[in-house]
Design brief:
Blueprint (H helix, E strand, L loop, with lengths): L1 H10 L5 H4 L4 E3 L2 E18 L6 E19 L2 E6 L1 H27 L1
Antiparallel strand pairs: 1-2, 2-3, 3-4
Length: 109
């Protein structure tokens, strides 16, 4: 379990804003800053003593590119990645619709 804690401490500096916003890229006088939706999860557990018990841990993460900030001619604008937004948005709208339907059903009773 100690190795997991050391690995997390080594990588803690890259978790946060730097993982959501990429490094700026210059292309023909236009600056592009990629933006992603980043999520991390970690867990651990154990049972009994270290000598006779079981212990374990794990973690993971994901990044969904949602667009980029584009700066040209002194003006900056956000350009969304429509495919990623649809992939995230459609399930969200479906779940929200189901929740609203249940609320309406509960209020009718």
């Amino acid at each position: 379990m100690t190795n997991l804690a050391l690995k997390l401490a080594e990588n803690a500096g890259s978790i946060g804003v730097r993982s959501a916003y990429g490094d700026p890229v210059q292309i023909e006088g236009v600056t592009i800053v990629p933006v992603a939706l980043v999520q991390y999860g970690f867990g651990g557990g154990g049972e009994g003593d270290e000598a006779d018990g079981a212990a374990g841990g794990g973690g993971g993460g994901m990044a969904i590119p949602i667009g980029a900030y584009v700066k040209s001619g002194g003006a900056a604008r956000f350009e969304p990645n429509l495919i990623s937004l649809l992939a995230v948005g459609i399930p969200f709208v479906w779940v929200a619709g189901k929740a609203i339907a249940r609320i309406i059903r509960a209020l009718k009773k």
